[in-house]
TrEMBL record:
The lineage of its organism: Bacteria, Pseudomonadati, Pseudomonadota, Alphaproteobacteria, Rhodobacterales. Keywords: Carbohydrate metabolism, Isomerase. This is Aldose 1-epimerase. GO terms for biological process: galactose catabolic process via UDP-galactose, Leloir pathway; glucose metabolic process. Transmembrane segments: none annotated.
């Protein structure tokens, strides 16, 4: 089902596409290719955070909620990088760094509906050469599909007519109990390494998780009162490739999310500083700190400036590809 969702501040209409199969329903917006809402039959609340007000997303405090961020997700140090001997300069929208493609990143774009069925939607986007400082006219496709009984799958692909950087991530915040925070959620990550960061949240290398607060291989209960904070990349592998289990998130109500991806990295963000201000989420109240857990499948942060990290270079004739799925259940 396709229905009007609102009009952007620039006067462009936005649609919402609802897809479903089995016990799962998802709503996707053409603005930012946002995963706006996910509903599991028998659970009386949404499992991903979002808003029914387009203004919350359109230059608002919920601008990254559920969106596809890019063309280079996460941070680029110094808002610049060298590609084939040419220094590229990007929008320094985070002071000294570029975050999620800059102020005019993919989260601000309106995607086109290329195909739609009861259980799937395919969206397309063209990024012009030089937008945000990134070269190449780039063609991007995102396909969301619900598979019975309870799986949501996302397939991403991109091509370019000039060498460029490409690293897309879905930026959904998951909250499985319908409460104000993720207090009591249990999170398990299948990662034995992570990338520590400096004060600007730029990776400083790769470390083993053993003996650190980043060892979540056996799972850990999340508590906002804990000193350990998460806005870090966890290393699932050294290169994109086969589907693998990245994370398991379980709420105290018994709702469980299992996430699989082809990506080598998973950015985990605990949403500690989030504040949606006067805009309400799906629970009809504003979203506050620790409102959800972002599990962002991607290649490692600052890869354009870190040659030992999995490459994010995309060249003409190549196809960027990512596949990520989320499988839900209820005890």
């Amino acid at each position: 089902m396709i229905a009007p969702f609102g009009t952007t501040k620039a006067g462009r209409p936005v649609d919402a596409i609802t897809i479903s199969a089995g016990d799962l329903t998802a709503k996707i917006l053409t603005f930012g290719a946002i995963l706006n809402d996910v509903r599991l039959q028998g659970v009386p609340y949404g499992l991903t955070l979002g808003s029914n007000d387009l203004a919350a997303y359109d230059r608002g405090p919920m601008d990254y909620f559920g969106t596809l961020v890019g063309p280079v997700a996460n941070r680029i140090s110094g808002a610049s990088a060298t590609l084939d001997g040419q220094v590229l300069t990007f929008d320094a929208n985070e002071g000294e760094t570029t975050l999620h493609g800059g102020t005019e990143g993919m989260h601000t774009e309106i995607w086109q509906i290329a195909d739609h069925t009861d259980h799937s939607v395919t969206l397309t986007l063209t990024l012009s050469n030089g937008k945000g400082g990134f070269p190449g006219t780039r063609q991007i496709t995102a396909r969301y599909e619900v598979e019975a009984p309870t799986t949501l799958r996302l397939r991403l692909s991109a091509t370019t007519d000039a060498p460029t950087f490409m690293n897309i991530a879905n930026h959904s915040y998951w909250s499985l109990d319908g409460r104000a925070t993720t207090e009591g959620h249990w999170l398990k990550l299948n990662a034995d390494r992570y990338t520590p960061v400096d004060a600007r949240l730029i990776p400083t290398g790769v470390c083993d998780v053993v003996g650190t607060g980043f060892d979540l291989r056996e799972g850990r209960v999340l508590r906002p009162s804990d000193a350990q904070r998460y806005d870090h990349n966890f290393c699932l592998s050294d290169q994109p490739g086969e589907m693998k289990q990245a994370a398991v998130l379980k709420g105290e109500t018994g709702v469980t999310l299992v996430m699989e991806t082809t990506e080598p990295g998973l950015q985990v963000f605990d949403a500690a500083p989030i504040d949606s201000g006067t805009f309400s989420g799906h629970r009809d109240v504003p979203e506050v700190g620790f409102c959800g857990v972002a599990l962002e499948a991607q290649r490692w942060p600052d890869a354009p400036n870190q040659p030992t990290f999995p490459s994010v270079i995309l060249r003409p004739g190549e196809t960027y590809a990512q596949e990520t799925l989320w499988r839900f259940s209820k005890d």
